[in-house]
Design a protein that fits this description.
Blueprint lengths: L42 E4 L1 H5 L6 E2 L12 H4 L4 E2 L9 E2 L29 E4 L3 E9 L3 E13 L2 E13 L10 E15 L5 E15 L28 E19 L2 E19 L27 E21 L2 E15 L7 E15 L5 E10 L2 E9 L3 E10 L3 H4 E3 L4 E3 L5 E10 L1 E2 L3 E13 L2 E3 L5 E3 L3 E15 L3 E9 L1 E3 L11 E13 L4 E12 L6 E3 L4 E3 L11 E10 L2 E8 L12 E3 L2 E2 L4 E10 L2
Antiparallel strand pairs: 1-2, 1-5, 3-4, 6-7, 6-37, 7-8, 8-9, 9-10, 10-11, 11-12, 12-13, 13-14, 14-15, 15-16, 16-17, 17-18, 18-21, 19-20, 21-23, 22-23, 23-26, 24-25, 26-27, 26-28, 27-29, 29-30, 30-33, 31-32, 33-34, 34-37, 35-36
Length: 628
């Protein structure tokens, strides 16, 4: 958890002049003093979960500067993901995460962080057309562009569209300016509608992502090729040059509810999802040296997916979901009950028959609010006949505590897979987890410190072993993770934010989790207005550190991270310098990566075995918001 507190506040933008009736034509965008009257306070956002859990609120669009320089999805988590050292590369969480989906998933999740899932979509209520353009130009041609537009058709009906793209050149051994490692194109369309009598509410969206990666396999170790040298970046020798992966996703989502009686609603959720994962490699090139010697080919020689001079793996996951339930408020108590039905399949050219599933769930939730600062929540879900998830949360002014207990299914990819290089057919048991989290909140005027603790017990954990195939652990793993978050303010202008976590893992399955023993982030920066408060500025340094560990390796053919015991990703502190500033409604960032390059014993650092982190380079970004 990161404490994000800004010393500055957005400048007031004003509000549209009031009218006697909602359908009265809106007046001009300028008031008598020629100041803009539309701004962040008149373009509000909210999420589906706000409505579903009867905690509806509308938020101002984000104009903050804190953390703005960490524009990449991995950096935005404050580097709590392990990736391959480039924007858009495969990534996994550093820490174990208890799943929210206890039923079947595809098992291909390394590009989840780059996908705008339906539950992450922002819905708008705008008094004027709202447009946001964010362009980031990273050193080494690591570029990202995001465009969003939303407007109200009527006072109670809004539509919007988002488009995003990533064009990230290879950081290792590019051969030309546009020799990209990652090409991502994503878009989403969303709408929200509320009836005139406020009894009916609808939110719907469609999202699509096509994520293409020219895989490199990492740097060839010097012990295999004596001419290969680490930390030469553009001149590095890599394993793969003729291999590519594609992750195509499409999601259709609908949520709507109707208030039958005051304080009592019925609702329905519909989802249709598709994920198509492919990997292609030319084996009549040097790329063949990277893969294992096993080759699985169909007896049907006309099947192009079994050609002996290529790898051509394909997996197609699809899912339909319907959920119906009721919810309401009884005084300060919120209640919810629902029935959910899921059906789906995993298909492959190599399968003799599709790997299909059908799941039925019963679930509900309860929340009580004694005051705004004293809250308890409880929710549960039962996957008939052998899966469940129970979650409880207690919030107070001084202490937050949560408990999660779950028994969840392994992924479809872990149980059945067919490809050119690997194949398996497993019948794994459910994975069990007990998780306790606690945070002590000691907040003062200029100083906030929040000690925290996470305790996990995981049994029957399914992982990819050293042979890069799935295996189920026979023992349990116990994780004790104490941590601390702190934020100090000096002279109202200087900020120091830090977080640190220590991880101790014991038990028979302890070695199946590769979490650095020490994980820390810190930033120190000046935050305040300059030039008669016309510019708000943040200028500072940011550092991160992970202790050495045998981090998981990555295999492109199956798009999975796996255990390895040969490559120690050694401890190395990374320091970046950043400058964020805002002029009216425009935000600009400069970030100089790896400021301390060449200052330590090692010339650089690794994130994943065979994949180096960024060398020193400058990034630039700009965000514009238009409210008319």
């Amino acid at each position: 958890m990161i404490l994000s507190v800004n010393a500055q506040q957005p400048q007031p933008q004003g509000t549209p002049e009031e009218t006697d009736q909602e359908d009265t034509p809106r007046r001009g965008l300028l008031d008598d003093s020629t100041k803009m009257v539309y701004g962040p306070k008149t373009s509000l956002i909210y999420y589906e979960k706000f409505l579903r859990y009867n905690k509806f609120e509308k938020l101002e669009v984000d104009t903050s500067l804190t953390g703005f320089h960490n524009y990449e999805p991995v950096a935005a988590t404050w580097y709590k993901y392990q990736d391959l050292g480039n924007l858009g590369s495969a990534a996994k969480p550093v820490f174990y995460e208890a799943p929210k989906q206890i039923g079947r998933t595809s098992g291909f999740h390394v590009y989840d962080i780059y996908h705008n899932s339906p539950d992450s979509i922002q819905y708008y209520d705008t008094k004027s057309p709202y447009t946001k353009i964010e362009a980031f130009f990273g050193g080494g041609n690591r570029n990202k562009l995001d465009i969003g537009f939303a407007r109200n058709i009527t006072p109670k009906w809004n539509v919007g569209i988002n488009y995003g793209t990533i064009r990230a050149r290879k950081t290792l051994n590019p051969t030309r300016r546009d020799d990209n490692m990652v090409v991502n194109d994503s878009y989403s369309i969303h709408t929200n509608y509320q009836s005139e009598n406020d009894k009916y509410f609808l939110m719907a969206n469609f999202t699509r992502m096509k994520h293409r990666v020219n895989e490199q396999g990492g740097i060839i170790p010097p012990e295999i090729d004596t001419t290969s040298v680490y930390f030469t970046y553009e001149d590095s020798k890599v394993w793969l040059r003729n291999s590519r992966a594609v992750d195509l996703r499409q999601d259709y989502h609908l949520y709507h509810q109707y208030e039958l009686l005051k304080g009592w609603q019925i609702y329905h959720v519909f989802d249709k999802k598709k994920q198509e994962v492919t990997f292609f490699s030319r084996l009549n090139t040097d790329d063949a040296l990277f893969f294992n010697e096993n080759r699985f080919n169909s007896s049907d020689t006309t099947n192009i997916h079994s050609a002996r001079d290529t790898t051509n793996n394909q997996n197609h996951f699809s899912e339909w979901r319907n959920e119906m339930g009721f919810k309401g408020d009884f005084g300060p108590v919120y209640y919810n009950a629902y029935l959910k039905f899921r059906t789906g399949r995993m298909a492959s050219y190599f399968f003799e028959h599709n790997n299909s599933f059908t799941e039925l769930y019963l679930g509900g939730a309860l929340r009580g609010e004694i005051t705004e600062k004293w809250v308890f929540e409880a929710e549960g879900e039962y996957l008939i006949p052998d899966g469940y998830r129970i979650h409880g949360l207690f919030i107070s002014p001084f202490l937050d505590v949560s408990y999660t207990k779950a028994s969840y299914r392994p992924t479809l990819a872990q149980e059945l897979y067919r490809g050119n290089h690997y194949r398996w057919d497993n019948n794994f048991s459910n994975i069990g987890v007990d998780q306790i989290k606690g945070v002590i909140k000691a907040d003062f005027q200029d100083f906030k410190i929040r000690p925290n603790m996470t305790i996990n017990r995981v049994n029957n954990f399914v992982f990819f072993n050293e042979e890069q195939v799935p295996e189920q652990a026979t023992g349990e793993a116990f994780m004790l993770i104490p941590g601390i978050d702190a934020h100090m303010v000096f002279a109202n202008k200087f900020h120091w934010q830090s977080e640190a976590y220590y991880t101790l893992i014991t038990g028979g399955a302890a070695d199946k989790f590769r979490i650095p023993q020490l994980f820390a982030n810190s930033r120190f920066f000046f935050d305040g207005p300059l030039f008669n408060e016309n510019i708000y500025v943040q200028l500072g340094l940011e550092g991160r550190f992970r202790s050495d560990n045998f981090a998981e390796g990555y295999t492109p053919a199956t798009q999975q991270f796996y255990l390895q015991n040969e490559f120690n990703v050694y401890a190395y502190p990374v320091v970046d310098a950043f400058l964020n500033f805002r002029i009216k409604r425009t935000r600009v960032l400069f970030r100089y990566n790896h400021l301390n390059a060449g200052m330590l014993e090692n010339p650089g650092y690794f994130i994943t075995p065979g994949y180096t982190g960024l060398k020193n380079m400058l990034d630039l970004g700009i965000s514009w918001s238009f409210f008319d």
